[in-house]
Amino acid sequence: MQINFLGVWSSQILSIVRIVAAATFFTHGTMKLFGWPAPFEHPLNGLIYTAGVLEVVGGLMLLVGFYARPTAFVLSGLMAFAYFMAHGSRGFFPVLNGGEPALLFCFVFLYIAAAGPGTWSIDGRAGRH
């Protein structure tokens, strides 16, 4: 019995995780900046506008795997900052303070920064994975 039956697909699965996380993250930015796929519920200030720009630009870069490691590292920091600024002050448990998405994005992006973008990426094609 082979326990590590998905091991041969780990780089492709990493690429899929990166693509899905980046596409989802991208829509957070498009909501803030363009009101798509739904209008953003809060007034834009400099901090939220900057986050929206990072979410759109960084989300696109991560989606295609272009300079994925440094991009993922910056986005991980953005999400850590967002968690502590917007959610952490509302209590300890992420399930209660609404911070689960920020926390998960933070650690998924940190993993991508460490592990690389996977096979299906511009970085992979350029030999930068």
TrEMBL record:
Segments crossing the lipid bilayer: 46-66, 73-96, 102-122
Subcellular location: Cell membrane
Main subcellular localisation: membrane
Keywords, in A-Z order: Cell membrane, Membrane, Transmembrane, Transmembrane helix
GO CC annotation terms, alphabetical: plasma membrane
Family named by the database record: Belongs to the DoxX family.
Pfam families: DoxX
Protein's membrane topology: Multi-pass membrane protein
Keyword tRNA processing: no
Keyword Cell membrane belongs to the record: yes
Protein's UniProt name: DoxX family membrane protein
Coiled coil residues, start to end: none
